[in-house]
Amino acid sequence: MAIRFVTGNEGKVREARDYLADLEPVEQIDYDYTEVQSDSLEAIAAHGAREAFEELGSDEPVLVDDAGLFVEALEGFPGPYSAYVEDTVGVERLWRLASEEENRRARFKTVLAYADGEVPRTSDETASEADSGSRAVRVETFEGSVAGTLVAPRGEGGFGYDPIFEYNGQTMAEMSTEEKNAISHRGRALAEFAEWYAGRDQ
Ligand code: ITT
Ligand code: NA
């Protein structure tokens, strides 16, 4: 069964497809789930996955990915506001802000939230109760993070903040999708997810 990746970000889909190629096909779905106001990527992603699964109908599972760049010297800014900051001031100006600091360390984090309808029926629930009313939803979350250094923009690959995020001498925009997946926040979260997914319902 295909997994519906609910995101407007094609870069995320490319990475998930590359990573999950042997597991399941990944289909991109454009659905604007409510991004709850929260400092927690996990809360945002879990809420989004539940809502998308409920609203989109069909039994195909959904995946949501909420990510952020946390700059140490800027108290974790832009963190959960990373998409807003990229769209407004942009990556180049965030770099200029960070370049004023002696400490250039930063961390990328992502939370993948997966939702499907496979909830075991509880023992006190009758069959007719289970078949009527709202759908049961199971939500599982998977986290990944990577520590790196902010640098002046380099590289043409990747997306978003990749050109200013350096890991082991290379920016993530200088890496192939496979190289980035091997070390990135998303690659790590995808690894956790793939392991759980392969053993689910056993
Ligand atoms: P969706 O919410 O539709 O999935 P988005 O791009 O808005 O897409 P996020 O809110 O999770 O996604 O993204 C936070 C910001 O971080 C946004 O500006 C992304 O471009 C950026 N970002 C996310 N993952 C990244 C990665 O692996 N490398 C570089 N930048 C990334
Ligand atoms: Na977003």
UniProtKB/TrEMBL annotation:
Keywords: Hydrolase. InterPro entries: ITPase-like_fam, RdgB/HAM1. One of its GO terms (cellular component) is cytoplasm. One of its GO terms (molecular function) is nucleoside triphosphate diphosphatase activity. It comes from the Archaea. Pfam families: Ham1p_like. Belongs to the HAM1 NTPase family. This is RdgB/HAM1 family non-canonical purine NTP pyrophosphatase. It comes from Haloterrigena gelatinilytica. The lineage of its organism: Archaea, Methanobacteriati, Methanobacteriota, Stenosarchaea group, Halobacteria. The gene is rdgB.
